[in-house]
Each structure stands twice: as structure tokens, then as C-alpha cells.
Amino acid sequence: MSAPTQANNAENVDRALAALEWTLQESRREQLSAGEHRLYGGPTAGFRYLVDGSLEIDDCGTTRLIAAGDVILWPHGSCGRLRALTDVDMVSVVFAPSRWLHTLPTAVVIGGFRAAEPAVAGLIDTIGTGPGATRPGDVVICNRITSTIVSVVMRTWLERGCAPDLWADRLAEPDLSRVIDALHAEPGRAWTVDELARAATMSRSAFAERFRELTGRSPASYLAGVRMAEAMRLLNDGEPVAATAHRLGYESEAGFSRAFRRHTGHPPARWRRDRQAQPSAS
């Protein structure tokens, strides 16, 4: 790789990390006994750091094994079940989502994070064991610690070559940024590709091609993902299924239920019932 290309890549990574916002909402230390199951999920972003033990995570149909020292980041919500393969000690962190988190995969797994970044792993322990905001400035300090941790996780993900092609570049696209903002601001609107192309000040064909190139999805597929994240938030807050379907632009409750089941593996009513019936690990 030439020196100019390396410099451009470094600048793109810097811009990408600067564009992502991490505001801590909750952190806690959790212990699970071997064989214990727990549901987790919801629309909020977050990560888990495994201090000790091993877990099997069924993340909407994708099974992952997580070992001591690993980090798993859910950039834009999650749904599924975890099972402790051994006695487990872990730190769970929830943070407010940033608009560009939705350009990331469903989950980012960093194996051997503690060995690669021991100092940052130590920071995770500090936010996982604290009693909350008890001193002036604690909220600000915890937010900055969270920003440091997640930024290092993202940098490790990029350095290991796990990121999709051009991922860092897409954060430097102000025209697409306007479109992303619009989709998240009004997920229930009946958006057309023509409208989105106008928001991006691009032709319809150029917009559709560039959007897919930089997000890995068509505009319609991306909007569907935004709607499902918002649906989980609304259902989790107690919104009726029919009202949720209406707010998110679905013509019928049945159509919404089919889309929700494709995304989570369960119809909306059952998903909410399961969430309420079991201890939360979100």
C-alpha cells in the first residue's frame, strides 16, 4: 500500500471514529451460573465484555461462542438468547445509539480483546463495577470512558480487516448523511428512492448505486432495518402491535407481523411476551 493511500485510510478512520457518538445509559456487572439461559434484546446499542467463563449467544439465529477476554458489540440493538457454558462473570454496557451505528453489522465480535488491549479492558472493569453517578462529573467521565472503549473496539475491528469495504469512507459522505438522518427521523414515512435521491442531491440511479456501495444494502432494506429497531423500542415500551404497525408505515398489522418475524424469528406479541417473562440481559 502506498504512503498516500495509508494516510488517506488513517484520515478516514479518524473521521469515522469522530463521527460516532457514545453516551452511556447503563453499566452493570453480571454473573451467570453454568447452564443458565437468559433472553436479551431491544433497540439500544451496547456491548458485553466477558471477564471470566464462556457463553453461547444465539443472536437472531446466528450462534456465536464468546470466551473470557472477548467483547461483543451490538451497534444498533439486538435480540436473542444467551447460555452460560460455564460460570460467567461479565460487564454489560448500554449506550445511546448514534445515527451511523446503523451502517455497522448486526454484531461486532473482537476475540482476545483483553490480550490485545489490556489497559482498555481495565477501563471496562471501572464502568462495570461503579455504583453510578455519585460524584460531580461522574456522568461526563463515564461517557468519555465509554467513548474510549467503544472507539478502541471499533479500531481493532478495522485493523483486523473485518469491516466491509469502504466502511470508514461512508462516514465522510455528507449527502448520504442527510438521507440517513431523514430515514431515522421518519421511519414510518412512505419513502421512495426518488425522494431520497433528491435529499442526497443525486440522480436516482447514482444514489441507489452509491447507497448500496456504502451501506451494503438497498435503501428499502436499510429502511426496513430502521423500522425493526424502532419497532422493538416501541413494543418494549408497551406500544400495542397495531399502533406500532401504523406508526411505522405498514398498511396492515399482518404485514408488520410478518416483517417482524422475519427479522427476529418471532411474531411481535410473542417477542414482547418472552421479553417480559424472563430476566432481562439487555
TrEMBL record:
UniProt key word NADP: no
Q: Where is the composition biased (Basic residues)?
A: 261-273
Where are the annotated segments for Disordered?
Answer: 261-282
Pfam families linked to this entry: HTH_18
Q: Which InterPro entries does the UniProt record give?
A: AraC_XylS_family_regulators, Homeodomain-like_sf, HTH_AraC, HTH_AraC-typ_CS, RmlC_Cupin_sf
Query: HTH araC/xylS-type domain location, by residue?
Result: 177-274
* Lineage top rank: taxon: Bacteria
Instruction: Give the matching PROSITE patterns.
Output: HTH_ARAC_FAMILY_1 (PS00041), HTH_ARAC_FAMILY_2 (PS01124)
The answer to keyword Transcription applying to this record is: yes
| Coiled-coil annotated spans | none
Q: Which UniProt keywords apply?
A: DNA-binding, Transcription, Transcription regulation
Q: What is this protein called?
A: Putative AraC family transcriptional regulator
Source organism of this protein record: Gordonia malaquae NBRC 108250
